[in-house]
Design a protein that fits this description.
Oligomer: single chain
Bound molecules: coproporphyrinogen III
CATH topology: TIM Barrel
Number of strands: 9
Radius of gyration: 19 Å
Number of helices: 15
Distance between the termini: 21 Å
Structural class: alpha/beta
CATH class: Alpha Beta
CATH architecture: Alpha-Beta Barrel
Strand order of the largest sheet: 1-4-5-6-7-8-9
Shape: globular
Length: 343
């Protein structure tokens, strides 16, 4: 099937479809026994990300089981810092740990020189997926948006209050801006290679956009995303791009009108009537089932799936979660969701 005929691409071109496409953020991963087995074979999480055979396999696992309309490349948003030379480790039960970069002087530890050679296996995974995916399944590449990647690079780990990265960004915006500019450049290069290898859509994950005040949201979320989109569009004018500024409330309105993306992924707190009225005239919306309802399953989950589909399905829409699948999700509940959405 040609790219233009896949449901995900049609939705991102602004079409309202009688059967909207669906996929789920973090659809590959620890809720699947076959993922756990492959992860065991790979050794570490980074070894899995950098092994094209196994990364292709785990990308395909949810598609085989549930028949989503799109596959998302198996990788991680922190491969860019890794490729820039920042030491990175994933500790069991703790998440990612990085050697923090906290001021302009420490930026000299980072370099674009080895980015492509370090992450080359990811491009190979994309190329294999482009070969192996069923004809009607779209291939999504991704990266973290600069702000979210910077939070991990500066804090050195996941953070609740983002105190250290905000201290730098608010007190020395020019210096912090140098890190953000480097991330814009690296992200454009990384996503361009994914597109050349066969990614048909890209998504930018800004998981921590909701931590920013209004002015900072403009400067550290919207502006870097605008730059990435503009640069990608110079080489790939028709590339569909999805943004996910999680947790920004009414800021979703500004994002939808000014970020120049084709699609906006909504977290589960966004009111659906408001999204239909204020966002859908400007962009395709994607979302927004609370992943906890996928853990609960049954009538509570089913009622919410129907409500989302009825409210957003009147315009350009992609069904998804409001954030990633959590590990304790029973795979049968994903099966039921898929059955309802495929109709
Ligand atoms: O299926 C998919 O969606 C594709 C793969 C994917 C992963 N991470 C694999 C992964 C994607 C798209 C991501 C994005 C990602 N990574 C984000 C943005 C989206 C979000 O969930 O907010 C962020 C913030 C990260 C950084 C990251 N990676 C953290 C904080 C952690 C540890 C906590 C956790 O969620 O497990 C990871 C590890 C990670 N990335 C795992 C997977 C499958 C778990 C690793 C394991 O097998 O133990």
């Amino acid at each position: 099937m040609r790219t233009e005929e896949k449901l995900l691409i049609l939705a991102l071109r602004g079409e309202t479809l009688s059967r909207p496409p669906f996929w789920l953020m973090r659809q590959a991963g620890r809720y699947l026994p076959e993922y756990k087995a492959t992860r065991q074979d790979a050794g570490s999480f980074l070894d899995l990300c950098y092994n094209p055979d196994l990364a292709t396999e785990v990308t395909l696992q949810p598609i085989r089981r549930f028949g989503m309309d799109a596959a998302i490349l198996f990788a991680d948003i922190l491969l860019i810092p890794d490729g820039l030379g920042q030491a990175l480790d994933y500790k069991e039960g703790e998440g990612p740990i990085l050697e923090p970069i906290r001021n302009v002087a420490e930026l000299s530890a980072l370099s674009m020189d080895n980015l492509h050679s370090r992450v080359a296996p990811v491009y190979e995974t994309v190329a294999r997926l482009a070969e192996e995916l069923p004809d009607n399944v779209a291939l999504i590449g991704f990266a973290g948006a600069p702000w979210t990647v910077a939070t991990y690079m500066v804090e050195g780990r996941g953070s609740r209050d983002h105190a250290i990265v905000k201290q730098w960004a608010y007190s020395d915006p020019d210096g912090f801006g140098q890190l953000m500019d480097l991330l814009v450049t690296a992200t454009v290069e990384y996503l361009s290679k994914q597109v050349e290898a066969g990614a048909e859509v890209v998504q930018l994950f800004d998981t921590w956009a909701g931590a920013l005040s209004e002015t900072a949201f403009q400067r550290w979320c919207i502006e870097p995303v605008q730059k990435i989109v503009a640069q990608l569009r110079q080489s790939y004018p028709d590339l569909p791009i999805i943004g996910f500024p999680r947790g920004v409330g009414a800021g979703y309105g500004t994002f939808a009108k000014t970020a120049n993306v084709n699609g906006v992924s909504l977290d589960w707190t966004v009111p659906l009537d408001w999204a239909a009225r204020e966002l859908q005239p400007h962009v395709t919306v994607q979302g927004n089932l609370d992943p906890r309802l996928l853990v609960v399953g049954g009538p509570a989950m089913e009622a919410e799936i129907n409500r989302i589909r009825e409210t957003l399905g009147q315009g350009p829409f992609i069904f998804n979660l409001g954030h990633g699948i959590v590990p304790e999700t029973p795979p049968e509940h994903v099966g039921r969701l898929a059955e309802m959405l495929r109709g």
